[in-house]
Amino acid sequence: MTQLSAAEAEVYPPLPEKKKVGGWLLVLCVGLTILTPAAGLYGLVVGWRVASPLFAKVPGLESLMILNSMLELVLISWACVVGIKLWGVKEGAVAAVRGFMTATVVLRGLLFLVVAFSPVRGVGLPAFVAFIQAIIFASIWKSYLTNSKRVKATFAETPQAPPDLQPDVQ
Question: What residues contact 109, with CB distance under 8 A and at least 6 apart?
């Protein structure tokens, strides 16, 4: 490795130690990677068990269930991806989580509108509740991601020297 001059050492500090996720940030990571998928899959199973006997009696219900299931599976997968990225303290993780939360609110809102204007009765309230839950979830966690000192410290951007200019540590 090439030795850094004193001026270069000031511009390019040594690589920091691996940052760890803890506190409420860890709660968010667990929520995205474990709790959200578990709750989503449980909701899908229960929803299908409740709705499937009604498919013959309620036209359009099966189509709404398929649409809801596809949306839920996309959100579950996306939650896992951004949660793993956040837990691993990867570059762009906070922005990815914010984008996921915004998209979740938008998609839940669109699903509510589809359900509200469909001829199927009795499914609007659960879709509305899911939409409101997404708004509350996103509002709380986006506020945390924006204002938390832990998030700022964990995901602080510091200029790094190119690998060939890293100081020799002995």
Answer: 131, 134
Using alpha carbons, select from 159, 104, 165 the residue that is nearest to residue 133: 104
Cβ atoms within 10 Å, residue 22: 11
Per residue in 86-140, pLDDT (tens digit) is 999 999 999 999 999 999 999 999 999 998 888 888 788 889 999 999 999 999 9
Q: Where are the domains of the chain?
A: 25-153
> Where on the phi/psi map is residue 160: left (φ > 0), alpha (ψ -120 to 50), or beta?
beta
pTM exceeds 0.85 for this model = no
Phi, psi of 73 (to 5 degrees): -65, -35
Separation CA 96–CA 117 (nearest Å): 31
Lookup: tokens for 106: 């938008």
164 contacts 2 by C-beta, under 8 angstroms: yes
Rounded to an integer, the average pLDDT of 33-47 is: 96
End-to-end Cα spacing for the chain: 12
